[in-house]
Amino acid sequence: MRSIGEMARDSGLSVSALRFYDGAGVFGPARVDPQTGYRWYAQEQLADARLIARLRRVGMPLADISRVLTADPAQARRTLDGHLRRLEDGLSDARRELSTVRTLLDQRENPMNPTRLTVPAPELAAALDAVRFAASTEAALAGVLLELEPDALRLVATDRYRLAVSQAPATGLTGPTASAIAPTAFVDELRALLDGDGDTELVIDGDRLTATTAAGRRVTGERIDQDYPDYRRMLRLEPTHQLPVDTAALRRTLGSGATRSMVRSQDGTACEVSVLTVTPDGSLGIADEDTEGPRIGVNREFLLEALAAGGRDQLVLELGGPVAPLAIRFPDRQDTFSLLMPTALS
Hints:
Blueprint lengths: L1 E2 H8 L3 H9 L7 E2 L6 E3 L4 H12 L4 H9 L2 H37 L5 E6 H11 L11 E7 L2 E7 L3 E8 L1 E4 L3 E6 H10 L5 E7 L2 E5 L5 E5 L18 E6 H10 L3 E4 L6 E9 L5 E3 L9 E4 H11 L3 E6 L6 E5 L2 E8 L6
Antiparallel strand pairs: 1-3, 2-3, 4-8, 4-10, 5-6, 5-9, 6-7, 7-20, 10-11, 11-12, 13-18, 14-15, 15-16, 15-17, 18-19, 19-20
Helix pairs in contact: 4-5
């Protein structure tokens, strides 16, 4: 048997870490002396302790570590793969943020270097329609985030209860990659001009935003000088159910189905909540008090708006549980979707 000090020395875990993992139910000693309370570890536990030390060095959460230790080999490997994907996503986010910082530093040195991007008008109109419904009325978020990249324009809108993301193909980027929060007034005026074909040029020049259509009509505005929420961390969902839905049929079901009248705790706003469930045959349904299985509360008005913004006859709903965001996706596009935060059911 090994004392806790010996196990700490040989495994790479500290004594306090071993005590913590014992208290958390992840990794306990083989025996605890009933008189002294000393922890004693078996020789065969050393391999698991060293495994825990390695997993903690790469930042794996405790729940996943416990799963690796107790699951069958196939499930353990899936857990490792999932954590590796999260690490790679985090590295991509870090690179993106550092790239943005470099761009901001470049703009300090070259303040007169605007960013220009050309976007086909029909694709820009569709992208605006897909996100506009989620824009907030709060001053800091009352707009649509525009991210100008070499081959795409990404648009994001959120009011903290829902999030919508879309993308339009683009060409002709000049200047550094750039992003700006376009006020909703600018967005709405621009959308009203996109009634035909041709290209639209977007320009971010310091605090100034300009959009010019193929017909020469122009919209100008000032960017909102705020940091936008880190929306990318919301995008790494692992849904438990992916359900193809007929949009019109779901709208009818929501319109006729039972709802709960609730008040949002965050701001005191009253709303009607539909309680969604997955039926035994794997389809989406409206739950009642006697329904067994998953029960996910969602603001009915928000869900109806998201379905309308999709503009498709068929969509895919992704459910991850009562506290995970509900995703509404296009079946043929991974770059356009919306997320709705669930409503807690009391």
